[in-house]
Amino acid sequence: MSTDPQPSFRLLPGSSESPVLLHVPHGSRAIPEEVRGGVVLDDSALERELDHITDAHTAELAARAAEACAVRPWRFVNALSRLVVDPERFPDDREEMRAVGMGAVYTHTTHRERLRPPGLDQTPLLERYFHPYARAMTEAVDARIAATGRAVIVDVHSYPTAPLPYELHGTGPRPPVCLGTDPFHTPPELRSLAEAAFAGFGGTGVDSPFIGTYVPLKHYGTDRRVSALMIEIRRDTYMTEPGGPAGPGLDALAGALVELVELAGRA
Fold first, then answer.
1. What is the pLDDT of residue 258?
2. 160 cis-preceded (ω within 30 degrees of 0)
């Protein structure tokens, strides 16, 4: 594969005093031309898939929140679509989404249709995009630990109001804000801060319809200096679905995220 000039990710600096890292892995629609060539969907079908799979406006949400914080958090933003690679998946058999063709490299769409041809060698995509992203995110977390003694990852996501066919746990509750937790890396105090910050949107739920949160594999399950929480925002709270413009709810959500970031940074 040729070298792609477009950066795969961006680390946007915050305050040296902040342990908080806002992670935005699924907010981009960008697909390099060389990767587009390996996708079997025509252009219109690909645009529809991007509408469904992209966490639209989450990068803007994180940016608004960061700019409004008294102590600015750091931001790690995926500059490419998750249809290139999904940096939040396990790259091996631990990943349950491989059952529906949506592991680190997607072979199927949200509607369980073919995205890439059978027999794809995933290694070039993993080497070009997945592993460099993982290394850089690990370094960003290590830097927060070195500077402040800890790191707090806040994973910023969104999800559709109605379940899509790819969802393995789509029959459960779909609250306005779902908090994805990890038994090792999500302390009760962090969850409580998020529940309070997002209480004004009609309620929060935990681990439904999506569970877990991102932690670099270097730290995963072993380093309690790294705490993490996933914020999954139901899209009807702030945008026109499936891939339309943001509405006034985005500003209110940014305010809630500011509250969470500032409290988590001081905790």
1. 98
2. no
Please give the average per-residue pLDDT across 233-243, as a whole number. 98
Q: Please tell me the distance from the alpha carbon of residue 102 to that of residue 34, in angstroms, as a whole number.
A: 20
Percentage, residues of the chain above pLDDT 90: 97
* CA geometry: angle 29, 85, 55, nearest 5 deg: 40
Q: Which of 16, 22, 18 is nearest to 60 (CA)?
A: 22
DSSP-derived letter for residue 210 is -
d(CA 60, CA 250): 9
Is the bond leading into 209 cis (omega within 30 degrees of zero)?
yes
Distance between CA atoms of 121 and 162, rounded to whole angstroms? 33
Burial 231-262 (b: 16+ CB within 10 A, else e): bbbbbbbbbeebbeebeebbeebbebbbbbbb
Handedness of CA 71, 73, 74, 75 (dihedral sign): negative
Q: pLDDT digits over 83-100, tens only?
A: 999 999 999 999 999 999
β-pairing, 20-24 with 74-78? parallel
Place of tokens 């270097």: 218
Span 104-136, pLDDT tens digits: 999 999 999 999 999 999 999 999 999 999 999
Structural tokens at position 10? 């961006």
Return the SS3 of 116. coil
Q: What is the DSSP letter of 2?
A: P
> Which residues partner with 23 through β-bridges?
76, 155
Mean pLDDT of 150-177: 97
How far, CA to CA in Å, does 110 sit from each of 23, 28, 52, 203, 208?
Answer: 22, 16, 7, 26, 18
